[in-house]
Amino acid sequence: xxxxxxxxxxxxMPEEEIPMGWSIQCNVTSCKAYMWxxxxxxxxxxxxxxxxxxxxSQCGASGFIEKSFDLQEPGYTWELFLRGAIRLGxxxxxxxxxxxxxxxxxxxKANYIWFSYYKDLxxxxxxxxxxxxxxxxxxxxxxxxxxLLRQLYDLD
Length: 156
Ligand SMILES: [Zn+2]
Hints:
Blueprint: E1 15-16, E2 22-26, E3 34-37, H1 40-46, E4 63-70, E5 77-87, E6 95-103, E7 112-120, E8 128-131, E9 139-141, H2 142-155
Antiparallel strand pairs: 1-8, 2-3, 2-4, 4-5, 5-6, 6-7, 7-8, 7-9
The structure holds zinc ion.
Zinc ion (ZN) binds next to loops.
């Protein structure tokens, strides 16, 4: 007998092609410039400072990217601000893990770390794919990550 009571959940694929680019907005009220990055590689390579923070190309202040995702719960959205990105891997690798620095207000301290990655196969005729979003890797409070590192350090 077939059990017909299996619940089906809609899961957003964590690895998806992002057709649109990234809109970075300057944090300074008197400037308010918008910058555009065509893809994740352009964003990390050309719109971050030496510490990974997004920068305004007009005034040099910090910038942010506003994001909103529909959640599984009907009518609920997840709103966040990407503040910067730090590469974790070797620049030449195809698989590129990185973290976004995240806050829930454009100007508050970025207290969250979001593990993400992209995979760039464009040089061999493939595509640039980005793995992030709901259904993808978790967002951790910086304190949770530091706690994990302390535990790993003790294990070592
Ligand atoms: Zn600016």
